[in-house]
Amino acid sequence: MATVSKVEEITAILRTEILRGQYRPGERLPSERDLSARFETNRGAIREVVKKLEQLGIIAVAPGGVRVLPLEEATLEVLGYLLELGEVHRPELIGQMLDVLGAMTSLSIRSALAKATDNEIEDITLIVHALIAAHDKDDSAVHEVWIQLSEKLISIHRNLILRLVANGLRAQFIGQVQTEIEPEKIRNPGSQHLIELLHAIQDHNGEAAASAVIRHFQTMKRELLALTATQTPSQPELSQNRSADYA
Amino acid sequence: MATVSKVEEITAILRTEILRGQYRPGERLPSERDLSARFETNRGAIREVVKKLEQLGIIAVAPGGVRVLPLEEATLEVLGYLLELGEVHRPELIGQMLDVLGAMTSLSIRSALAKATDNEIEDITLIVHALIAAHDKDDSAVHEVWIQLSEKLISIHRNLILRLVANGLRAQFIGQVQTEIEPEKIRNPGSQHLIELLHAIQDHNGEAAASAVIRHFQTMKRELLALTATQTPSQPELSQNRSADYA
DNA sequence: CGACCAATTTGGTCAGACCAATATGGTCAG
DNA sequence: CTGACCATATTGGTCTGACCAAATTGGTCG
Questions:
Q1: Which of A126, A155, A168, B103 gets the most CB atoms within 10 Å of its CB?
Q2: Which nucleotide is closest to A8, CA to C1'?
Q3: In three state form, how does the secondary structure of chain A look?
Q4: Whether pLDDT at B246 is above 50
Q5: pTM of the predicted protein model
């Protein structure tokens, strides 16, 4: 599996060490020369690594030394790596994710309905129908249709910021959430709300649609948390030193 | 003003050229050697530049050439630079920003109220009071109190994702929006909704609070757009080639 | 006209060097 | 003994020039 470049490897290692909390925020990282010695490579490679980590928002590089930043100053991109490490409780983080996704999707549907033409309303309606139908199949089908709906909505309201945030979130969680949590039990998690959504869309009622989406995501979250709570009795309280340092 | 490193300078120049659309998505950037010749520097510096741009999500670097990515694949961080360039209509983007911030804050208040102790309810109440009072002063005071409220809410619900997204958005817009748009006319933009928010908080009614926040931001957006529409009669339709390439 | 192959270009890596800004530790005055 | 101060060592910032492997490119051959 040497398909990744050396810089990528070293970046991954250092990123992991930092996110694991092996260096406290404010602390100095070993010098570039020391790092190049440790990883048996040249300083140029280390500099590229450092540049990437700097862009991730987890270190600050300045003459005199590279310093580790607190997690709160990081970029969204660290989420995927945090999940990968299991450094944050997955169910908790996934719950938070559903909250944020719900708020985003809610805004998306409200904005889209405010601008949508009749044809577009038609399109949306079809996708939501597909969504309801997908709930009788496997979860990946549901997931796919949600993405489809999301894309459709974004193409209507054309909110660049919303798109970038959604992109970022999706990129961080793809492959993380989907594979791990695919229990068959989470069937019809409130197709009731989806039906309400459907009606709201046909009425061009953005507020009602937004509300239905919020409630749908809340239901999903509740079911999911209940599920993981039972099947994962106890998980070690890893690295609360990092996830708990918000005042 | 030579306080920035050479790498920073070159990064800024190339970033600007790419975001301006001087290279179409998929197109190849000049080779690292050519770039180092053009900027009269060594290849190592260019490599660091390229690494940073790669992390920004606007280029993909691979053997054979560096390629420019479509804007939709970029990271949130590009927003600040886009604003800086004026490549996207500022009023439009700021409107989108208010939408997203509204959805975020709405979620934030709902989540916080679901967890808040009586003491924390008290704290929130005080801040919202300060917020209403600040509306009689200058805008920067309002802005400050909003940040204070946001911090307070995050410290209660402890949603890491929400925090990172909010951080990212705020970082992109600090200094961009605040200085430019500070018209005194946007006074009491719906302190009505703020009073509703206050009552909802005291009733521990998360849904009502979330709704009030949403409506408050919608009002702000409406007033702001009406304002800029009159005082900025016509702005050239710059770079629609980039902002319009979402299907 | 299309498939294939070789030469060129490109990114990936490497070694060693000098400069300017910072951090460090020791010294000296109070 | 404590604090300010200064020289030195350390650190990041920049530079040069070179070799390798993979991708691109353009020409050639079927």
A1: B103
A2: C12
A3: CCCCCHHHHHHHHHHHHHHCCCCCCCCECCCHHHHHHHCCCCHHHHHHHHHHHHHHCCEEEECCEEEECCHHHCCCCHHHHHHHHCCCCHHHHHHHHHHHHHHHHHHHHHHHHHHCCHHHHHHHHHHHHHHHHHCCCCHHHHHHHHHHHHHHHHHHHCCHHHHHHHHHHHHHHCCCHHHHCCCHHHCCCCHHHHHHHHHHHHCCCHHHHHHHHHHHHHHHHHHHHHHHHHHCCCCCCCCHHHHCCCC
A4: no
A5: 0.82
